[in-house]
Every structure is written in structure tokens, then in C-alpha cells.
Amino acid sequence: MTTIHVDGDACPVREEVYRVAFRLGVKVIVVGNGARPVRLPDHPDLRLQIVPDGADAADDWIAEHITRGDVCVTQDIPLAARCLEKGARALSPRGHVWTAENIGGALAGRAVNQARREAGAITGGPAPKSGADRSRFLSALDTMVRAAQRDGAAPPPRAWVPFE
């Protein structure tokens, strides 16, 4: 069964996630350390998972519990990569779909920007979110959850075994 895992403390699209999840009948786990209080609507398919304080505690929890057929909503590129490695899907709050084809370049760009910041360069932040971002996110999440539901219902892929 498909579950949406939300990297939750600073997620700007939780309400949109709930809307899609309720319509498609999937569970949502919002993961955070509780530093920013998160109130979930009263619904049996929503769960708040509080993790200990720590830089990557929420990411580690999600990466440990996400499975094939699940979806992760995160702004964190390394977490998206970890989810893809587990056979799950990943989506940014702006509606950017992370795939095996584009995650490597995103990780490399992140590393370059981090090195530039450490060297004192100003790299700027993300552009403000627009209505188009929200619309793109809703559409991408709907499409992604439906595909994940189909994947989750399919038998897992067989492991490749070389001929002897």
C-alpha cells in the first residue's frame, strides 16, 4: 500500500499533500523533530512521527522506513536520492520530480554550491514560490501517487542472477 512520507518540519505543502492523499485514499506520515509544531487534521490516514533532534534524524527515519511503492515529499536532495535508491519516488514541494536520471546532477550542483558557500561566495536562495509551483506540485503528486499505487500492487522486480 502506498504511503506518502513528508519531510515535515519545514514543508510548505502539507495541506496539498493531505488533499491529494484523502482523495486517493493513501496514508501520510509527516516526519519531524517537533522543533516547529505541526498540527495534523484529525484523520485516520494521517500520522505524525516525531524523531529525536539531530541534523538528519527525520531524513534517516524516512530513508529507513520508505519502501517501493511509496512517495517522499522533500526539499532535501540527498534524502530524495536515498528514497530513489530504495525504489520509492521523490518530489520537491515545487513539483520537481526526482528521478535516477536527474538526481546525480542535482547532488553535484548541491555540492558545488556548498563548496562555494564555504569559500565565502553568496549563492542566493530559492526563488519565492508561485501559484504555478503549487499547481505543478498538486499535479505531479497526483500523478506520482497513482503510479506508485500501480507499482505497489505489482510484484517486486526479480533480482538479476547471472548465468552460470
What's the gist of this structure?
This protein has about 160 residues and is of the alpha/beta class. The chain is about 40% helix and about 15% strand. A hairpin with a 5-residue loop joins β5 (about 90) and β6 (about 95-100).
- CATH topology (fold) name: Rossmann fold
Kindly name the structural category. Answer: alpha/beta
Mind describing the biggest β-sheet? 6 strands, mixed
Helix content: 40-55%
Characteristics:
41% helix; 5 helices; six-stranded mixed β-sheet; disordered C terminus; 164 residues; single chain
Give the topology, please.
Blueprint: E1 3-7, H1 14-24, E2 27-32, E3 46-50, H2 57-65, E4 71-73, H3 77-85, E5 89-91, E6 97-98, H4 103-118, H5 131-153
Parallel strand pairs: 1-2, 1-4, 2-3, 4-5
Antiparallel strand pairs: 5-6
Helix pairs in contact: 1-5, 3-4
